[in-house]
């Protein structure tokens, strides 16, 4: 045991939380005690404690699009969050503080810098969030998932911290060898689902002759699963429908083609596995960062980028009918060539270097 303590700060979405968990698990394996800073009633509050990490909560949330009253209250809310974060750091006494995005990172990172705690940041997106843009000026080390983000002498492009399962999958050529018959289509809507995909994909499949239709696994959030079933029934198409995929890495590896959003974790997980994908960026993402994320792969000839307002049943049906498995393998191999696999290790090593006596 090293006797060292890390405070992980990440919250709001799985795109911040799961990379944070990868780092937390790596540090724990190296003998660190790990605490997690999040917000009460949040996704991280549900996901993190069952993984065996001590959870510390402060009250803070974003202000974009929340109206004038929320903006006017921001100074008071920030002061309260800073006081709460100061209390957490005083009690936990971390050797290193690691921020992986989400609004909770901002007050926690400010307190870390003000109290002389080494601050390590990781930015998952190709367009940095506001908290990380500000905190990068005071962080000891800054890591990014995509190149050319938060450029500076302390910044290093390492990719996204990934769960080990994504790095254990066989290479695309090995997976595709011997495959025959209908294509295997995986549709990933995320924890909240993606209504546009839920509507368009069944309609597209209905346009494909029954003998040419792919075998379909369609994941949607629990809140949308019943409507998804109704959409497939109305289209007269059979599919395996699920609110949650237990082993996302294996599901991606088994698919010939994936239709999905373009969050940072999704893009880097697809590269890690090596899969062909149609990326449909969430059109209301801050600064349209999902489109920029997707271009990291599609500009390299790995997959297709289709804005939501241009995704039609006819376009997708044509792609499914006219794209042979051999072409999808080429896209998968190009995606695989873009992967970076050492991000978790690099962040953990930085923590150990900064905590060294």
From TrEMBL:
<dbReference type="InterPro" id="IPR006009">
    <property type="entry name" value="GlcNAc_MurG"/>
</dbReference>
<keyword id="KW-0573">Peptidoglycan synthesis</keyword>
<dbReference type="GO" id="GO:0008360">
    <property type="term" value="P:regulation of cell shape"/>
</dbReference>
<feature type="domain" description="Glycosyl transferase family 28 C-terminal">
    <location>
        <begin position="185"/>
        <end position="337"/>
    </location>
</feature>
<feature type="binding site">
    <location>
        <position position="191"/>
    </location>
    <ligand>
        <name>UDP-N-acetyl-alpha-D-glucosamine</name>
    </ligand>
</feature>
<dbReference type="GO" id="GO:0071555">
    <property type="term" value="P:cell wall organization"/>
</dbReference>
<dbReference type="GO" id="GO:0051301">
    <property type="term" value="P:cell division"/>
</dbReference>
<comment type="function">
    <text>Cell wall formation. Catalyzes the transfer of a GlcNAc subunit on undecaprenyl-pyrophosphoryl-MurNAc-pentapeptide (lipid intermediate I) to form undecaprenyl-pyrophosphoryl-MurNAc-(pentapeptide)GlcNAc (lipid intermediate II).</text>
</comment>
<keyword id="KW-0808">Transferase</keyword>
<keyword id="KW-0132">Cell division</keyword>
<keyword id="KW-0961">Cell wall biogenesis/degradation</keyword>
<keyword id="KW-0472">Membrane</keyword>
<dbReference type="InterPro" id="IPR004276">
    <property type="entry name" value="GlycoTrans_28_N"/>
</dbReference>
<dbReference type="GO" id="GO:0050511">
    <property type="term" value="F:undecaprenyldiphospho-muramoylpentapeptide beta-N-acetylglucosaminyltransferase activity"/>
</dbReference>
<feature type="binding site">
    <location>
        <position position="245"/>
    </location>
    <ligand>
        <name>UDP-N-acetyl-alpha-D-glucosamine</name>
    </ligand>
</feature>
<dbReference type="GO" id="GO:0051991">
    <property type="term" value="F:UDP-N-acetyl-D-glucosamine:N-acetylmuramoyl-L-alanyl-D-glutamyl-meso-2,6-diaminopimelyl-D-alanyl-D-alanine-diphosphoundecaprenol 4-beta-N-acetylglucosaminlytransferase activity"/>
</dbReference>
<feature type="binding site">
    <location>
        <position position="290"/>
    </location>
    <ligand>
        <name>UDP-N-acetyl-alpha-D-glucosamine</name>
    </ligand>
</feature>
<dbReference type="GO" id="GO:0005886">
    <property type="term" value="C:plasma membrane"/>
</dbReference>
<dbReference type="Pfam" id="PF04101">
    <property type="entry name" value="Glyco_tran_28_C"/>
</dbReference>
<dbReference type="InterPro" id="IPR007235">
    <property type="entry name" value="Glyco_trans_28_C"/>
</dbReference>
<feature type="binding site">
    <location>
        <position position="163"/>
    </location>
    <ligand>
        <name>UDP-N-acetyl-alpha-D-glucosamine</name>
    </ligand>
</feature>
<dbReference type="GO" id="GO:0009252">
    <property type="term" value="P:peptidoglycan biosynthetic process"/>
</dbReference>
<protein>
    <recommendedName>
        <fullName>UDP-N-acetylglucosamine--N-acetylmuramyl-(pentapeptide) pyrophosphoryl-undecaprenol N-acetylglucosamine transferase</fullName>
        <ecNumber>2.4.1.227</ecNumber>
    </recommendedName>
</protein>
<comment type="similarity">
    <text>Belongs to the glycosyltransferase 28 family. MurG subfamily.</text>
</comment>
<dbReference type="GO" id="GO:0005975">
    <property type="term" value="P:carbohydrate metabolic process"/>
</dbReference>
<keyword id="KW-0328">Glycosyltransferase</keyword>
<keyword id="KW-1003">Cell membrane</keyword>
<dbReference type="Pfam" id="PF03033">
    <property type="entry name" value="Glyco_transf_28"/>
</dbReference>
<keyword id="KW-0133">Cell shape</keyword>
<feature type="binding site">
    <location>
        <position position="125"/>
    </location>
    <ligand>
        <name>UDP-N-acetyl-alpha-D-glucosamine</name>
    </ligand>
</feature>
<comment type="pathway">
    <text>Cell wall biogenesis; peptidoglycan biosynthesis.</text>
</comment>
<feature type="domain" description="Glycosyltransferase family 28 N-terminal">
    <location>
        <begin position="7"/>
        <end position="144"/>
    </location>
</feature>
<keyword id="KW-0131">Cell cycle</keyword>
<feature type="binding site">
    <location>
        <begin position="13"/>
        <end position="15"/>
    </location>
    <ligand>
        <name>UDP-N-acetyl-alpha-D-glucosamine</name>
    </ligand>
</feature>
């Amino acid at each position: 045991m090293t006797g060292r303590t890390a405070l992980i700060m990440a919250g709001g979405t799985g795109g911040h939380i799961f990379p944070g968990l990868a780092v937390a698990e790596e540090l724990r394996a190296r003998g660190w005690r790990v605490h997690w800073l999040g917000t009460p009633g949040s996704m991280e509050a549900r996901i993190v404690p069952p993984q065996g990490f001590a959870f510390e909560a402060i009250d803070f949330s974003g202000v974009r699009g929340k109206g004038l009253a929320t903006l006017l209250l921001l100074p008071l809310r920030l002061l309260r969050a800073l006081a709460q974060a100061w209390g957490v750091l005083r009690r936990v006494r971390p050797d290193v503080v690691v921020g992986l995005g989400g609004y909770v990172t901002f007050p926690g990172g400010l307190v870390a810098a003000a109290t002389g705690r080494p601050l390590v940041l990781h930015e998952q997106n190709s367009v940095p969030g506001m908290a990380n843009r500000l905190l990068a000026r005071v962080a000891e080390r800054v890591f990014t998932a995509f190149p050319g983000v938060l450029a500076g002498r302390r910044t290093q492009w390492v990719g996204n911290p990934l769960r080990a399962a994504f790095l254990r999958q066989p290479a695309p050529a090995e997976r595709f060898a011997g495959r025959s018959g209908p294509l295997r289509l995986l549709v990933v809507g995320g924890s909240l689902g993606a209504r546009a995909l839920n509507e368009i994909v069944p309609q597209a499949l209905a346009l494909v002759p029954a003998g040419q239709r792919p075998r379909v696994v369609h994941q949607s959030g629990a809140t949308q699963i019943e409507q998804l079933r109704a959409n497939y029934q109305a289209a007269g198409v059979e599919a395996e429908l699920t609110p949650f995929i237990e082993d996302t890495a294996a599901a991606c590896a088994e698919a010939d083609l994936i239709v999905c959003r373009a969050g940072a974790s999704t893009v880097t997980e697809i590269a890690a596995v090596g899969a062909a994908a149609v990326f449909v960026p969430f059109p209301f993402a801050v600064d349209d960062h999902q489109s920029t994320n997707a271009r990291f792969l599609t500009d390299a000839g790995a997959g297709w980028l289709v804005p939501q307002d241009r995704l039609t049943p006819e376009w997708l049906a044509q792609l499914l009918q006219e794209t042979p498995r051999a072409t999808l393998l080429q896209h998968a191999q190009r995606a695989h060539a873009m992967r970076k696999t050492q991000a978790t290790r690099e962040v953990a090593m930085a923590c150990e270097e900064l905590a060294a006596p």
